[in-house]
């Protein structure tokens, strides 16, 4: 991804989508700084609150059914928690960036 791709992702994002994008950029910045200092990319576990399908549907202005379908097809990475589906904000941000391509 080039700086122009990142800039376009920002331009294409709605105000509701920007916090997830900013969070992803902050995480990537931290990992890059650790790699510069140590020569290794840190392995981190996501410590972010997972989103419900309803949360994602509202952010994307889509129906819950459409979000379920995007998850089922693997277009939005998701996790099953019992019968529920949860989506990491970073996974949603990645999906949105890919939609800008």
Short description:
This protein is mainly α and 101 residues long. It has helices at 3-12, 18-38, 53-60, 64-72, 89-99; strands at 51-52, 79-81, 84-87. Helix 2 crosses helix 5 (89-99) and helix 3 (53-60) crosses helix 4.
Name a few traits of the molecule.
101 residues, mainly alpha, three-stranded antiparallel sheet, globular
Q: Can you walk me through this structure?
A:
With 101 residues, this protein is mainly α. Helices cover 58% and strands 9% of the residues. The protein has a three-stranded antiparallel beta sheet.
Largest sheet: 3 strands, antiparallel
H and E order: HHEHHEEH
What level of helicity do the residues show? 55-70%
User: Strand content of the residues, in percent?
Assistant: 5-15%
Radius of gyration over alpha carbons?
15 Å
Q: What distance separates the N and C termini?
A: 10 Å
What does the overall shape look like? globular
How would you name the oligomeric state of the polypeptide chains in this document?
single chain
Strand order of the largest sheet: 1-3-2
Topology:
Blueprint lengths: L2 H10 L5 H21 L12 E2 H8 L3 H9 L6 E3 L2 E4 L1 H11 L2
Antiparallel strand pairs: 1-3, 2-3
Helix pairs in contact: 2-5, 3-4
């Amino acid at each position: 991804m080039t700086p122009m791709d990142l800039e376009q992702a920002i331009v294409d994002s709605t105000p509701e989508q920007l916090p997830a994008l900013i969070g992803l950029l902050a995480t990537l910045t931290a990992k890059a700084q650790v790699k510069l200092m140590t020569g290794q990319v840190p392995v981190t576990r996501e410590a972010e609150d997972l989103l419900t399908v309803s949360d994602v549907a509202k952010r994307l202005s889509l129906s819950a059914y459409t979000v379920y379908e995007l998850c089922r097809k693997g277009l939005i990475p998701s996790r099953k928690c019992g019968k529920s589906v949860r989506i990491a904000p970073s996974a949603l941000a990645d999906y949105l960036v890919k939609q800008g391509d």
